[in-house]
């Protein structure tokens, strides 16, 4: 069953938070916030996205934060929604404001917000947990049973304003530039995958060097991987992977690359496989190349069920297989910040385009054509508060 966008919380009584001095009206709306904004929506059940210049500004509840978005990243999920494939058409409600990667300034907070202040520069974790299911209550909110995802299950950040619960807010370090702060979400995916697999001192194979796969290359190098092997169909991305620290790059069209990868790792195979492509063939080849006793971290999402040789590739190999979903909240966010501030990861070749928000269509088409890797949209200034 498709999930529908979650309606924002409401504040029923009009009130003013005396401690913070931020007045709200009876709908949880900051009294000086504009009533409408520019947003990018899935307005029709067909390929494309549409600008909606008179979209109502989100209301906020007692524990919510209203953010004026300055930069927002386009990710693979957004591309799925733009193209309106089988997955997105069964999951995303028509009328949803899309987008989940962003940075911006806090412009209003609810009456129950304790730590976040107006004027702070923030990003946010896009997986919003229920807080009461077993995963949430055992420190695994990233796999909440009833998770709502920003820009998918509720209105997202391709807009001048977005509302997020305070629990999901991440205050951005002043030394991290906006276009990088806006992509903490996918960078966190790569970080979670690499760190879960424990790559330090080990040979690592990365199958698929799209946006997150390339991020994984530079993170794995910074995390002390001994040797990094990559494979992909795109020659340009293979070249960038080598620029970011990969030792050997195999074209996926070379059917013998798994044997070559084993020969490059003392004939035993790589110790770690990071599967980023979602390709069934790449997954099977990666398992075939993997060393006995190796670790596999799976992040790529196949478009259909994948058949693998369970006995020979996992059981008899004694392989350890990890399913990776989102980011650890908030262990991964601290890791991303630390790696960025250390200066040891290189994102320059990955963030290829920064475009005005109104040129979103160009951004998606550049990605589809393979001319862009990561595109960051710059939002027009939100109407000033009085």
Which SSEs are present, and which pair or pack?
Blueprint: E1 15-17, E2 22-24, E3 36-41, E4 50-56, E5 64-74, H1 76-83, H2 86-91, E6 101-109, E7 121-124, E8 127-128, H3 134-137, E9 148-149, E10 161-165, E11 169-171, H4 178-181, H5 184-197, E12 203-207, H6 211-222, E13 227-232, H7 235-244, E14 248-251, H8 257-263, E15 272-275, H9 280-289, E16 295-298, H10 310-315, E17 320-323, H11 331-342, E18 351-356, H12 360-368, E19 374-378
Helix pairs in contact: 5-6, 5-11, 6-7, 8-9
Please sum up the structure shown.
The chain contains 12 helices and 19 strands. The chain is α/β, with parallel strands linked by helices and 386 residues long. The chain has 2 domains: 15-183 and 347-378, Medium-chain alcohol dehydrogenases, catalytic domain (Quinone Oxidoreductase, Chain A, domain 1, Alpha-Beta Complex), CATH 3.90.180.10; 189-323, Rossmann fold, CATH 3.40.50.720.
What does this 3D model show about the protein?
The protein is an alpha/beta fold. The chain folds into 2 domains: 15-183 and 347-378, Quinone Oxidoreductase, Chain A, domain 1 (Alpha-Beta Complex), CATH 3.90.180; 189-323, 3-Layer(aba) Sandwich (Rossmann fold). Helices cover 26% and strands 24% of the residues. Strand 12, helix 6 and strand 13 form a beta-alpha-beta unit.
């Amino acid at each position: 069953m498709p999930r529908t966008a979650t309606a924002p919380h409401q504040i029923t009584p009009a009130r003013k938070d005396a401690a913070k001095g931020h007045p709200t009206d009876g709908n949880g709306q900051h009294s000086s916030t504009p009533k409408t904004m520019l947003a990018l929506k899935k307005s029709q059940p067909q390929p494309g996205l549409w600008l909606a210049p008179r979209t109502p500004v989100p209301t906020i509840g007692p524990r919510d934060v209203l953010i004026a978005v300055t930069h927002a990243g386009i990710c693979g999920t957004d591309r799925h929604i733009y193209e309106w494939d089988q997955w997105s058409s069964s999951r995303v409600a028509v009328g949803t404001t899309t987008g989940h990667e962003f940075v911006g300034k806090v412009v209003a907070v609810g009456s129950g917000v304790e730590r976040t202040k107006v004027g702070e520069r923030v990003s946010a974790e896009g997986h919003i947990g229920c807080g009461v299911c077993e995963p949430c209550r055992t420190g695994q909110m990233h796999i909440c049973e009833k998770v709502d995802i920003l820009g998918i299950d509720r209105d997202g950040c391709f807009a001048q304003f977005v509302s997020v619960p305070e629990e999901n807010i991440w205050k951005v370090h002043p030394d991290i530039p906006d276009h990088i702060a806006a992509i903490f979400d996918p960078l966190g995916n790569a970080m979670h995958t690499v760190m879960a697999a424990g790559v330090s001192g080990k040979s690592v194979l990365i199958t698929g060097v799209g946006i997150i796969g390339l991020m994984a290359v530079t993170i794995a190098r910074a995390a002390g991987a001994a040797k990094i092997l990559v494979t992909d169909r795109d020659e340009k991305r293979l070249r960038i992977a080598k620029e970011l620290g990969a030792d050997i790059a195999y074209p996926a069209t070379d059917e013998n690359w798994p044997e070559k990868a084993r020969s490059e790792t003392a004939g035993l195979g790589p110790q770690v496989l990071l599967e980023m492509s979602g390709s069934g063939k790449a997954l099977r080849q990666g398992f075939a190349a993997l060393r006995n006793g190796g670790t596999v971290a799976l992040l790529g999402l196949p478009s259909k069920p994948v058949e693998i040789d369970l006995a020979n590739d996992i059981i008899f190999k004694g392989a350890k297989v990890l399913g990776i979903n989102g980011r650890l909240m908030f262990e991964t966010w601290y890791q991303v910040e630390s790696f960025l501030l250390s200066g040891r990861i290189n994102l320059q070749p990955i963030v290829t385009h920064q475009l005005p928000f109104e040129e979103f269509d160009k951004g998606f088409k550049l990605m589809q054509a393979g001319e862009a890797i990561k595109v960051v949209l710059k939002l027009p200034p939100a109407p000033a508060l009085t």
